[in-house]
Each structure stands twice: as structure tokens, then as C-alpha cells.
Write a structure and sequence with these properties.
about 150 residues, alpha+beta, four-stranded antiparallel beta sheet, 1 helix, rod-shaped
């Protein structure tokens, strides 16, 4: 009787296979980590936009005498149901200035105000702080836009 050949992997083939599996699994976990970091950054940017829009809508409800400079703080923690004072801290300012770009020959130049809402926050990747900022501007007319003729 004739004996058949026995087949098996060599030690070098096994080591190469383990190396390939190791590199693939490390790359997979790095992709997951980057994906979660991108999602967190996207959430923070979206929350910043929501805060800015909320302040802009509040400005629409103010009277002319209520348009003053102020500062405010907002918090965001996606894991908390009541984010009263936890999570990312957004610090904002509302500043009012005389509107620029309006010809001085117009009698209503002093009746238009430029409102700027700025927002800053810092998130951390590991222990490294990364500052962010956003801002929005609008112009507010003392008696509403319907009373002015350009």
C-alpha cells in the first residue's frame, strides 16, 4: 500500500496569517473610533447651530430697548436626559452695533442695528483640547422692515 501525503500549514504561513488578521482587526477598531469621534463632533456642531438659531429667534421677540450685549451659557450631554449642567459647555455672547454698509444719507441709518451672536466650545480628543466657534449675524430695524423704503 502506498501512503498519502500529509498536508499542513508551516509556521511561517501561520505567522503571516496572524499578522494579516491583526492588522485588519486593528484597522477595523481604528475606523470605529474615528467614526464615533466624527459623530460626536457632528452632534456638537449641530447643537451649536441649534443654540445660535434659538438666540436669533429670541432676538426677533425683543423690543428695540431690549437689544443689549449679553453673555450666556448652554450645556449639551447626549447621555443625559436633563442636561442642566453637564456635558459640553457652550459659551456665547450677543453683541449689538450700529449697522454698517447703510448710506449715511438715509434718515433711518440710526434705526438699524447689527446683532452678532457668537458661540464657543471646547471638545477633547484624549486630553488634547480642540476649541470651536460659530457665529451668526442679523440686522434689526427699530420699526420693522415694512416701514422703510430703500
Amino acid at each position: 500500500m502506498r501512503e498519502g501525503k500529509k498536508a499542513a500549514f508551516t509556521l511561517v504561513e501561520v505567522l503571516v496569517a496572524v499578522l494579516v488578521v491583526g492588522i485588519v482587526s486593528i484597522s477595523l477598531f481604528a475606523c470605529f473610533s474615528q467614526g464615533f469621534a466624527a459623530m460626536e463632533s457632528s452632534r456638537e456642531n449641530l447643537r451649536a447651530t441649534q443654540i445660535l438659531l434659538q438666540k436669533m429667534e429670541t432676538i426677533r421677540l425683543c423690543t428695540w430697548s431690549q437689544l443689549t450685549n449679553l453673555t450666556f451659557t448652554a450645556y449639551y450631554d447626549p447621555n443625559s436626559t436633563n442636561a442642566a449642567s453637564s456635558g459640553v459647555i457652550y459659551t456665547g455672547t450677543v453683541t449689538t452695533n450700529a449697522a454698517s454698509g447703510i448710506p449715511s444719507t438715509n434718515s433711518y441709518q440710526s434705526n438699524i442695528c447689527l446683532v452678532n451672536v457668537s458661540l464657543t466650545w471646547t471638545n477633547y480628543i484624549l486630553d488634547r483640547p480642540i476649541p470651536h466657534s460659530r457665529q451668526m449675524q442679523t440686522q434689526v430695524a427699530r420699526y420693522g422692515l415694512q416701514n422703510y423704503i430703500w
